[in-house]
Every structure is written in C-alpha cells, then in structure tokens.
Design goal:
- The structure is a single chain.
- The protein has helices spanning 2-26, 30-45, 49-54, 57-63, 72-91, 95-113, 124-136, 142-150; strands spanning 65-66, 69-70.
- It has eight helices and two strands.
- 75% of the residues lie in helices and 3% in strands.
- The protein has one domain (2-150).
- Strands 1-2 form a two-stranded antiparallel ribbon.
- The chain is mainly alpha-helical.
C-alpha cells in the first residue's frame, strides 16, 4: 500500500508539472517544453525526456503497474506527457522523436481501454484517433509497431 501511495503521489506531481508543459506547447515554446518534460521526468520519474521517449514497450507499461494492477490514471498522465512531447518534437521538425512519443502514448491509451473500470474521459476515442493519425504520419520503430499491433483497440 505504501508503494502505491508513493506512486500515486509521483503521478499527481507529474500531472502538476504537465500543466506547465501544456502552456508552453500552447504558446509555441517547443524548446522550453522539451526542457520542462525533461525536468518533470528527472524530478518525478528518475529519468529524462529521452528515457521516456525510448523506453521499451514492456518497461513503459510496467511504469503504470502496481503489482498485478494496471494504474489507468498513471498511464493517462504519461500518455498526455508523451503526446505533448511528441507535439514539441513535431514542431521542431524531429519526426522520429515525435513518432516515438506518439507511439508510446498510443500504446498506453490502448492499454487503458483494456481496463474494465478505468476512469476515462468521454473524449478517449478522439484522443486515440488523433494519436493513431500521428503515429501513421511519423516514423515508428519496429519494436513499437509490434507492440501496437499486439495491443489493438
């Protein structure tokens, strides 16, 4: 229970940092957004923006797991962070990095849909469709392509 509380606190703090990244992307401050993602990852995930963008699929999903329980809130927060990171990379004309972010966000959201009692927004279908479009428009590594195919919605 203590581990779960710590994990949920980290996710809540990450969600607060996410608000800053949302504002930076909305203002077109893409370099600052990448720096903010990097800082948020360092503070709350003991990693970097690059680590998050390049995590193997199974490790990414494991970040959102507490024992045998998948934490949909954690997955949705990470998916939002990855989506914003992808948006910043897309605008910086870094298609491979954008594709890596979008594909990981899509993987997380598809996994969320598998949870029967996951708290999801009524907009989840729109978010997934947008992520799918972004994945189709950007290069995605073979490992992520296989993982996405395995986790079809």
């Amino acid at each position: 229970m203590i581990e779960r509380d710590v994990l949920m606190r980290q996710i809540q703090q990450l969600a607060q940092a996410l608000a800053n990244v949302v504002q930076l992307v909305a203002n077109g401050e893409y370099d600052a957004a990448i720096v903010a993602v990097d800082e948020a990852c360092a503070q709350h995930l003991d990693g970097s923006a690059e680590d998050l963008r390049t995590l193997p699929p199974e490790r990414l999903l494991a970040l959102c797991t507490d024992g045998s329980r998948f934490l949909a809130d954690a997955a949705q927060t990470l998916a939002k962070l990855l989506t914003l990171q992808g948006d910043a990379h897309r605008e910086r004309e870094e298609p491979a990095k954008a594709g890596a972010c979008y594909s990981r966000a899509l993987l997380l959201m598809r996994r969320v849909l598998q949870e029967p009692d996951a708290p999801v927004s009524w907009q989840i279908g729109t978010k997934i469709a947008s992520l799918k479009q972004n994945v189709e428009n950007h290069p995605v590594g073979d490992e992520m392509t296989v993982a996405l195919d395995d986790l079809q919605e």
